[in-house]
Amino acid sequence: MKSAFRRVSRVGSLTGGTKWYLSDDCLLAAKRVMYAVEYRRFYLRDLESVVVWRSGLWLWRLIVPAVLLAALGVSLWLWVNSTAGEIFTGIALAWVLLELALGPTARARICTTGATVDLPLVKRTRRAEKVLAKIDAAVRATRAIEQPSVPATVPSPAEPNVQMLSGTSATASVAAATQTNAS
Predict the structure, then answer these.
(1) CA distance 168 to 47
(2) Alpha-carbon dihedral 156, 162, 166, 172, rounded to 10 degrees
(3) Using CA atoms, how far apart are residues 63 and 100, in angstroms rounded to an integer?
(4) Kind and range of the H or E element at 55?
């Protein structure tokens, strides 16, 4: 049996993470912290916005480990062994290159008609466009289904309601009403 939910995104962390699932009518966040799972359901018809932006933490994530590893590498090179220093300096350089290749980390906010929730939707901003496109397509499909079809002929507000008026025919009363509206 095929599940109605399909996984859209996954953001891991040391203590758990958040998995995002999309169905025909809702967006589901399964946030796991250690052994507990908390589910949040966002109905697509109630979504007002899903915003993803670049986190300021990604620079700290890039700089702090690189500086610490490079300092350790230089100190090992000078006082202990040049090979150990080269290894830690190489690790620092690899860390910087990896973080630059992966790009900035992201934060997200989901606004519905009743609540605003900050939950991680994607880990990096380069993946955000793909995930947001899937959510946008699902929202558009849901809202297209919910909108009633527009009738072919819509009476204008100036036209009177077509009813039988004291023995006269409906066409005569409509013709008389259009003549009085025209003048």
Answers:
(1) 52
(2) 80
(3) 11
(4) none
| Phi and psi, residue 3, nearest 5° | -75, 150
- Residues 46, 47, 48, 49, Cα dihedral to 10°: 170
What are the residue ranges spanned by the domains of the chain? 6-55+104-146, 57-101
Closest CA to 20 of 111, 121, 109: 121
Q: Residue 52 has which token pair? A: 């993803």
At how many degrees (to 10) do helices 57-79 and 82-102 cross? Answer: 170
Question: What phi, psi does 140 have (nearest 5°)?
Answer: -65, -40
- Return per-residue pLDDT of the chain as tens, 183 residues: 455 888 998 888 888 889 999 998 889 999 998 889 999 999 888 888 888 989 888 888 888 988 888 888 888 888 888 888 888 888 889 989 998 888 888 989 999 888 888 888 898 888 888 999 999 888 888 888 776 655 555 555 554 444 433 444 433 333 333 344 444
**Domain 6-55+104-146 belongs to what topology?**
PH-domain like (2.30.29)
